[in-house]
Amino acid sequence: LLSACQHPKPMLMLSSDLYDFKEIAKNKHYRGSSVIKNTGNDTLKIFQIEADCSCTQAYTTKNILLPDDTCKLNFTYDTQNKQGLEEFYICIYANTDSLVHLLKIRAFVN
User: Fold this and answer.
1) DSSP state of 2
2) Do residues 14 and 35 touch, judged by C-beta distance below 8 A?
3) DSSP letters of 32-89?
């Protein structure tokens, strides 16, 4: 009876909240990805993908996900002028209860 009263809503789930490049070299480009899944019961709409560092570019393979549908969140990281432990976030804006979802990126640049 309770499930009949629930309103349809999308839910965004990342395959992981952290992507760790581990130890990488300076002045190179690295690629990574994570999977986004709509675990809700309504259409998920991804409005915007944003990185908090200009050294990172990110995009999804789809912006509209039906329930149980998935897409890839692909990103590149440029280590030019970077050194030591680096941590930053990719922000995913969507039509979910939590308007922003975060993927933390970590690397140790030699």
Assistant:
1) H
2) yes
3) EEEEEEE-SSS-EEEEEEEESSTTEEEEES-SEE-TT-EEEEEEEEE-TT--EEEEEE
Write out the H or E segment, with its range, that includes residue 101.
strand 100-109
Closest Cα to residue 10, out of 102, 98, 90, 80?
A: 98
Report the predicted TM-score, pTM, of the whole model to 2 decimal places. 0.89
Give the three-class secondary structure for 110: coil
The answer to whether the CB of 52 falls within 8 A of the CB of 67 is no
pLDDT in tens, the chain (110 residues): 455 567 899 999 999 999 999 999 999 999 999 999 999 999 999 999 999 989 999 999 999 999 999 999 999 999 999 999 999 999 999 999 988 999 999 999 99
Contacts of 3 by beta carbon, 8 Å cutoff, 6+ apart: none
Backbone angles phi, psi at 4, to 5 degrees: -70, -20
